[in-house]
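step=encode ok
step=design start
structure_in=
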């Protein structure tokens, strides 16, 4: 059974690696965009108006995608005071229950986010008049990635040889 847990952990880390690379790329683009905005506003007077709007959407996309990375490292909120004092079997079921509740939340967010994104094609951004569906697409994408990470982390928690010691126990350190 722990082979299933190890496979889920490996897939979780692979997915997380892709998300982390995407977040780093978004951060680099955000920094370059902000530098360009400062440059064209105070140094070189060019009429580039897209920088503020682009910075806003890059930051939102990056923050939303980072949620799945937090889930992969088990850095999301948990009630440590009670969780750590429970017996191992109860901790396992409680961790899987937390994962299931969060999975349902993110699955619903994904479904509603798709509708929100589709409706965004009829609305346009203020400065550049691009369809808001493109910035809005970050919500269902991030919710999908978070739900996928929760599924993998939940499989790991359920099939692991040891019950999680705490709700924030990372999957990256140590072996089963």
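sequence_out=
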């Amino acid at each position: 059974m722990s082979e299933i847990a190890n496979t889920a952990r490996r897939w979780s880390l692979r997915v997380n690696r892709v998300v982390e690379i995407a977040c780093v790329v978004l951060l680099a683009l955000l920094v370059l965009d902000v530098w360009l905005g400062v440059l064209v506003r105070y140094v070189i007077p060019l009429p580039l108006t897209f920088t503020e709007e682009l910075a806003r959407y890059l930051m939102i996309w990056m923050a939303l995608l980072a949620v799945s990375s937090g889930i992969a490292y088990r850095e999301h909120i948990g009630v440590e005071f009670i969780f750590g004092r429970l017996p191992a079997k109860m901790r396992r079921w409680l961790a899987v229950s937390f994962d299931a509740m969060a999975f349902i939340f993110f699955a619903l967010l994904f479904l509603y986010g798709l509708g929100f994104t589709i409706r965004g094609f009829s609305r346009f951004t203020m400065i550049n008049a691009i369809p808001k569906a493109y910035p809005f697409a970050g919500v269902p994408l991030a919710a999908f990635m978070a739900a996928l990470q929760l599924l993998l982390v939940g499989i790991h928690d359920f099939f692991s040889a040891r019950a999680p010691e705490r709700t924030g126990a990372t999957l990256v350190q140590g072996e089963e």
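step=design ok
step=annotate ok -> Confidence is low (pLDDT under 50) at residues 170-176.
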